[in-house]
Design goal:
The chain has 123 residues and is mainly beta. The chain has one domain: Immunoglobulin-like. Helices cover 12% and strands 58% of the residues. A hairpin with a 2-residue loop joins β7 and β8. The termini are far apart. This is Lipoprotein. Keywords: Signal.
Length: 123
């Protein structure tokens, strides 16, 4: 009986170490598409990366100011646009609130005196 209890305890511990969830958020505005991936690595830690793609008819701007916000926090920065794209660098946090599957993220992109805002949803 003691062995069964030990085996169950080990299985419970190992199940807590299983790989977390991955959420792929995306959305589009008039001039931009945004793809944002969040890997939930534990109940209170995550890693996020993304890509912002210019889809407008004018030549792409040289740089943008962006922010991607959720109820669990925000990612923002000033970035150079290379080939019509901006890579959103990997952000990590431990001991933080994490994005949930049904969350909607708010995006704001500023460039050349223009501002575009739209939402990202999990696909």
């Amino acid at each position: 009986m003691k062995k069964i209890g030990s085996l169950l305890a080990i299985l419970l511990i190992l199940s807590g170490c299983a790989e977390g969830d991955r959420y792929n958020f995306n959305g589009s505005g008039d001039n931009w598409d945004v793809f944002y991936t969040v890997d939930v690595t534990s109940p209170d830690s995550k890693e996020a990366t993304g890509k912002i793609v210019y889809t407008g008819e004018e030549p792409p701007p040289d740089s943008i100011i962006y922010s991607i916000e959720s109820t669990a926090g925000a990612s923002s920065g000033n970035a150079m646009v290379d080939g019509g794209e901006v890579l959103v660098g990997k952000s990590t946090c431990e001991g933080c609130a994490v994005i949930q599957q049904g969350d909607e993220l708010k995006v704001e992109i500023k460039w050349d005196g223009q501002v575009e805002e739209f939402a990202l949803t999990n696909q």
